[in-house]
Amino acid sequence: MHRVAVVTGAAAGMGLAIAQRLARAGNQIALVDLDGDAVMRAAAELGATGARTLGAEADVSDRAAVDAAIARVHDELGPVEIMVTSAGFDEFQAFTDITAEGWDRMLAVNLTGTFNCLQAVIPDMLAAGWGRIVTISSSSAQSGAARMAHYVASKGGVVGLTKALAVEYAPHGITVNTIPPGFIDTPMARRAEARGDLPSIDAVAARTPVRRAGTPDDIAAACAYLCSDEAGYVTGQALNVNGGWYL
Fold first, then answer.
1. Does residue 246 carry a catalytic annotation?
2. Range of the domain at 210
3. CATH code for position 10
4. Distance from the CA of 28 to the CA of which of 50, 133, 166, 206 falls in 20 to 30 A?
5. Is residue 243 domain-resident?
């Protein structure tokens, strides 16, 4: 069935890989990202493969922008039955150096942004009696991470929100799961490596049980399963895609 899927943070990295994978499964894809130029290019390139796509620029922390993007999806593609919230950012700071403004911005994007996107599409899923929601959290929310207290807190909130919605909406045919990625080789990870906030990709890979870094396609494959009909009995779960990093 050609369902309408919305993927946030879809201009690059995990979000783009997820959009591509869901398109290959036959879904119509709305790609949403803060970087308008990049997301329009990504949507055009994916559309060139034969997929029906839409690109939309939106800051997920801005509810009006999210609502406007979803209204476009309704107009051009139809009601939303699959939502993947991959938009987010990281930051490395000692706990005592985190400002109130920095704390608020982190939660606004990573946690409130997830809330905004999910609340905007739940009515479509309730009307359909079917829905798939996948949030992208982080293995750091399971293990903790130094110099990332605000990031870890925001992603821990995403895990909690996922569980709450799974319980609330399971009777309505809507599943809600989270993927907490381990160390994934993405543009965001490369930028952190270049700043010196993370060890080299190779060093992390050497310490990972499977002896490699994860790829965006690893996350996309897991996401595609959770968004499928076959995953209808899986909800409220954290599918840990981390190469054995968090054991």
1. no
2. 4-231
3. 3.40.50.720
4. 166
5. no
